[in-house]
């Protein structure tokens, strides 16, 4: 997750991504929608392109002009953005209701995005999900143990995965 | 979402929240797990308490010592963190596999957290979900139209909800 956050762990970056999911593609549109400075927008867009979350595609010749489109990696952030939007709507509403509502065109209902288990389909509750070390961290934990160090707990082992 | 990001739209804040979900509660534990400066940690924890995401609870008298626990509002961020972790695992893996795996104790399977529709249960794909203006933004759009202004599109109307 630390690596993920190095790409998207920042307010402006996430707001740019929301705009991209709503269909914004051009520099000037992002700028006017978000009220962000050109310098800051340019820096954030550059980072998203560098990490392969957006791709810069020419849409006009002479002068050449570019637009920014979501890649598959970028589209993969959809659950993050939708979960964050739902959380904001539930916990930070000032009595005006959600700014946006979402209709699932497959079933034609207004929806709440819900995080569920890929295997049984039930909503995931933190108290029912047990984290365990993946292979790489298991090996690190074993090395620490062999070296005579006391076995560390999961949160402290995570620094080895950054 | 902009309001949500004013609380959690930042790398360290999200890493603190991940640690809290993994069971970390005390200042010194957060500090040693994350390798963050005391000043920065103190500032970020203070903000999370101020926004009601964490609550500061005394666990020791003379001297009084506090720990930080997730509130219900904080627990509500679980889907955001799980979605972000899954995205990092899928798109930013360096060949070592996921640092953490998750077992759903209800069904006893290793899982991938999956964002689904609250109504039909199908996974949500961005191209099948249509955003529409909520009540407050509908009213703003109507006012703009009555004032003779051209009706703005969804991304540009969102600035009115910040």
Describe the model.
- 2 copies of one chain form a homodimer.
- Chain A is an alpha+beta fold.
- The first copy, chain A, has 8 helices and 6 strands, in the order ααααββααββββαα.
- Chain A has helices at 2-8, 11-21, 27-34, 38-50, 72-75, 78-91, 135-146, 154-157; strands spanning 54-60, 65-70, 100-104, 109-110, 113-117, 129-133.
- In chain A, the strands form 2 sheets. In chain A, strands 1-2 form a two-stranded antiparallel ribbon.
- The longest helix of chain A is centred in the middle third of the chain and has 14 residues, at 78-91.
- The N and C termini of chain A lie close together (8 Å).
- The mean pLDDT of chain A is 91.
Provide the fold topology.
The structure is a homodimer of 162-residue chains.
Chain A: H1 2-8, H2 11-21, H3 27-34, H4 38-50, E1 54-60, E2 65-70, H5 72-75, H6 78-91, E3 100-104, E4 109-110, E5 113-117, E6 129-133, H7 135-146, H8 154-157
Antiparallel strand pairs in A: 1-2, 3-4
């Amino acid at each position: 997750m630390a690596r993920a956050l190095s790409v998207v762990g920042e307010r402006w970056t996430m707001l740019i991504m929301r705009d991209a999911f709503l269909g914004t593609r051009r520099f000037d549109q992002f700028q006017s929608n978000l009220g962000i400075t050109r310098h800051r927008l340019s820096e954030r867009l550059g980072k998203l392109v560098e990490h392969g979350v957006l791709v810069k595609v020419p849409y006009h010749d002479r002068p050449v002009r570019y637009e920014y489109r979501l890649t598959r990696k970028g589209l993969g952030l959809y659950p993050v953005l939708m979960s964050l939007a739902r959380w904001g709507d539930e916990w930070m509403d000032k009595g005006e209701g959600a700014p946006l509502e979402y209709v699932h065109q497959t079933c034609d209902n207004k929806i709440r995005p819900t995080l569920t288990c890929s295997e049984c389909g039930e909503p995931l509750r933190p108290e029912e999900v047990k984290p365990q070390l993946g292979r790489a961290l298991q090996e690190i934990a074993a090395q620490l143990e062999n070296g005579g160090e006391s076995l560390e707990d999961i949160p402290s082992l995570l620094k080895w995965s950054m």
